[in-house]
């Protein structure tokens, strides 16, 4: 009887041990799956982005200048704080600026901008390299400053260049006869010295506005090139911005350019720059009377008529 009781006690003990082990196992199992994964090592990941906007401006030398405003953004895409970021801005592979950022928190950004001036019909490659530790990124942006050579109300005034030194030199060559009014002498010189050549022939496109110095250099141009040159010469010799304009007119879908000048005593005259001599006054009226003025402009004003 005592042996039987001992066997039962052993059985109960074994069952208790199994239950305890099971409970401990279940506890460990659930604790394992409930435990959140450990945080990965914090890392720095630098990124660079560049963008650009700009506008055209006239200068004291009358050469159109493009002012480009370049905006840059340096980002830290990593999980750790970036400390001691080094950055270099280069323009056409020449260092433009170098600077550092003390720190940049995870997912944070730093933005700033700088300006670059560019001559017309040119381009520049701008790059920014930022680095922190083993993380480096470079942003590259090509900025182009190609002058719109079509009729553009926002840019038309840039083409009148009375302060251009070449315009001033040309005036010295033109004005020489004290018996002929300056405005007639200048108009006749333009008509005689510049040859009409269409934009298609000269430039391979249907419309291509030339700066006065380009027209003088080529010795050729079409109607707006003649007019832009003549207006620039009149402005350079002393006609103020309210007394001389280039006019763009329209006749049954065809466009033509000429100059409108306020002549002392005589008053406002529409002048065809491609014709000189006897065409003055009466001839100009006959050749331009079919056109309706749409716009006029000089280096100061642009007006819709």
Description:
The structure is a single chain. The protein is 29% helix and 37% strand. It has seven helices and 14 strands. The protein has helices at 2-34, 165-174, 182-193, 199-203, 212-218, 223-237, 282-288; strands at 46-57, 65-76, 82-91, 94-104, 109-119, 122-132, 135-145, 195-196, 220-221, 244-251, 254-263, 267-271, 292-297, 302-304. Strands 12-11-10-13-14 form a five-stranded antiparallel β-sheet. It has a four-stranded antiparallel β-sheet with strand order 4-3-6-7, with no helix packed on it. Strand 13 (292-297) and strand 14 form a beta hairpin. Helix 3 runs antiparallel to helix 6 and helix 5 packs across helix 6.
Identify the notable features of this structure and list them briefly.
single chain; 305 residues; alpha+beta; Immunoglobulin-like; C8orf32 fold; 5-stranded antiparallel beta sheet; 4-stranded antiparallel beta sheet
